[in-house]
Amino acid sequence: MTVYTASTTAPVNIATLKYWGKRDANLNLPTNSSISVTLAQDDLRTLTSAATSESFEKDTLWLNGKEESLTNKRTQDCLQDLRGLRNQLESQDASLPKMSQWRLHIVSENNFPTAAGLASSAAGFAALVVAVAKLYKLPQDMSELSRIARKGSGSACRSLFGGYVAWEMGEAEDGLDSMAVQVLPQEAWPEMKAAILVVSDVKKDTPSTQGMQLTVATSDLFKERITSIVPKRFVEMKEAIENRDFPRFAEMTMKDSNSFHATCLDSYPPIFYINDTSKKVIRLVHSINAFFNETIVAYTFDAGPNAVLYYLEKNEEKLFAFLYKLLHQVKGWEPKYNKEQLNGFIN
Ligand code: PMV
């Protein structure tokens, strides 16, 4: 019995203009458009292989070496859409193997600790959708496939592209216009780098779907955010990226992270994702920018306390000198630069 296989990798993306709020929880349709930067493939990524054969008895998923259920609704929604598209191909060409009727075996592996509180579901669903689409030889482009990944996890739709990515919220009730598009490929602004400060590796206490529902239902600030703040920022952040304007991009990234966490605090009962250590990182970043009298680094926080810092490669030494000064006793923060280099920036 023939076994057909296909593999792909999908990177993690970190939003710089946050998606927070669903107008349709079933289809994962957002209340605002969002923007992200996709991390480099060798940094944080999911590697997924999909196989199908007439002889397979059930859909099975192995996640980081452990067998997991493939019955969860979000995964099944994605697989159903992919099988539907494959079925269309099979009805146009009778010589194609009837893969749409067969079961799937999926093996997925992250190259980073899943428990580190980093956005693993985005890379996971993106890789799942692209691997099965490849296996089925679907003609759909990445934006079209991003609509399917979106149903798995909203932010996953942005991981189908590298570089700088926008998720356009769309207006349609069926979600056909709610998909990701590339703003700029990574090569067009390759100097951007990200550093992730793992503040805590415990699982977040309020899952994002639950948190979003609570914010939408109870926060007054949230209404202001989605009507007058984010639509303008969406246009301006895309412009800053297109113009490779780091200080502008960085300022909007920090303001948007703060705005998102403010709506979490304004939810009732409030949701706290950032902790005291996160706040120290925020202060530190503002001190670094004030010290250099220039915005050289931006922070952003997702639904958890871990910080992602964005900076340009040319400023890495300056930034790491400061971080080292603060964190040198922490394991993993052994100096990357020698004392003379560090002393040029700090004492
Ligand atoms: O895609 P989800 O349901 O995991 O939600 C992601 C929400 C944030 O990470 C906080 C923001 C974003 O745009 O990625």
TrEMBL record:
Source organism (scientific name): Maudiozyma saulgeensis
Biochemical pathway: Isoprenoid biosynthesis; isopentenyl diphosphate biosynthesis via mevalonate pathway; isopentenyl diphosphate from (R)-mevalonate: step 3/3
Family (UniProt): Belongs to the diphosphomevalonate decarboxylase family.
Gene Ontology MF terms: ATP binding; diphosphomevalonate decarboxylase activity
Protein name: Diphosphomevalonate decarboxylase
Keyword tags: ATP-binding, Lipid biosynthesis, Lipid metabolism, Lyase, Nucleotide-binding, Steroid biosynthesis, Steroid metabolism, Sterol biosynthesis, Sterol metabolism
EC number: 4.1.1.33
Annotated catalysed reactions: (R)-5-diphosphomevalonate + ATP = isopentenyl diphosphate + ADP + phosphate + CO2
Gene Ontology terms: biological process: isopentenyl diphosphate biosynthetic process, mevalonate pathway; sterol biosynthetic process
Cellular compartments per GO CC: cytosol
Residues annotated as domain Diphosphomevalonate decarboxylase-like N-terminal: 10-180
Annotated ranges, domain Mvd1 C-terminal: 195-347
Keyword ATP-binding among record annotations: yes
Pfam entry (one): MDD_C
